[in-house]
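ok so for the tutorial part 2 we go from a plain amino acid sequence to predicted structure tokens. step 1 is just haveing the sequence, like this:
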Amino acid sequence: MSGSEASAAQAKRNVTITAAIAGLAGLLFGYDTGIIAGALLTITPDFSLNSLQAGMVVGAVPIGAVGGAWFASKGADRHGRRSLILVAAAIFVVGAIVSAVSPGPLILILSRAVIGFGIGVASAVAPVYISEVAPPDLRGSLVTFFQLAVTIGILVAYLVGYAFTDVGDGWRWMLGLGAVPAIAMGIGIIRLPNSPRWLLMDDDVEGARKALAMVRPAGAEAIDLEIGEIQSSMGGDTGNWKDLRKPAVQAALVVGLGLAILQQITGINTVIYYAPTIIQSTGIDSASSAILASLGVGITNVLMTVVALRLLDRVGRRTLLFIGVSGMSASLFSLGLAFIGGIPETVSTVLAIGSLMVFVSSFAISLGPIFWLLNAEIYPLSVRSKAAAAGTMTNWFFNFLVSLTFLGLIDLLTEVGAFWLYGAVGLVTLWFCWKFVPETKGKSLEQIDAIFKRRART
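step 2 — the prediction. this is what the tokens look like for a chain of 458 residues:
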């Protein structure tokens, strides 16, 4: 291997390790999302929760995440992306420990809001950080590390939930063990470089040059050229909230906020939060059996996200959106059929589990990773942290609405009507992707900025 090849290989390893450690933020997100699905089965009788209280235990995290994303919008430019990921890890550790020792519903709900705050900070900042250190040809797969970590976190949560279902106060262990990945992320993030783009915003050109040298195989001349492109794209923008009203930024926000909403109202978190509950409603009585059946959903989620990781920079964002959202919509209509009366219980259970797996597979190659990827790459540098935080806040707010209203929606429309409604939203999502979402595969962040500037002029 020549010296240049060795340098390129080392730079690729460095940027991959950087993305993997920052992507652990997704593991916190995924673990808490998945663990409450199993924990809720035993928390509810332990604390004699009614349906509203159970909804608040689930919904406290996304509400807290809205606040965390808002905090990230202000702190990411002031203190740096890396620093805020470290803060998020510390917040999550505190929230996980307090939730594990909660004496009653109020403390549990408040501690889960704290957890949500940490997740909101991490989910707003980590994808942006990864996008800013990744080279254009790897950015899709590297940012998808965040979503891959989400799916791994969900799977780990299902395994932990299954292991502790029949243990006395097992839900406390389920919630408390969430502190472990947060500690790991905090230790790992200390060793990573700051975002070179953030360093340039802070007028630290030499620091940005050193950070790029760690994650680029190119020589000094190419690095200086990239620094020049970044500085040119920054222009004279101040990066205030009012800058989000600029036509080019608004054109990008249509895509980011639209996908933030559609990712949630197509029903993904009804499946993740309530998968054991959904499976139980088809006739499986045992909590542990319902969680075990949910493991298939979790494994499918991880495997298909790995597929997405390999395809995003080859096939492109738009193509995967069309394929995946079509599968989501079809599987939701199929899932509704599983709850139509007169179907044998065995057939209903198999159809429900199969539909859940197809739905999760389709989500994992489309809206799952692609929302977070586009939300991190489509905004100009000067407003990237604020615009990305706006997308993250919107995503978490609709996460809260969907998770809080799902059980009530079933009471109103039955399972058939609820899942068919989500399926119809999937059809709207297909139209939105066709109309508004550009292809960003292989383009630098500055080239993507130019796409939306052209849109704003037309």
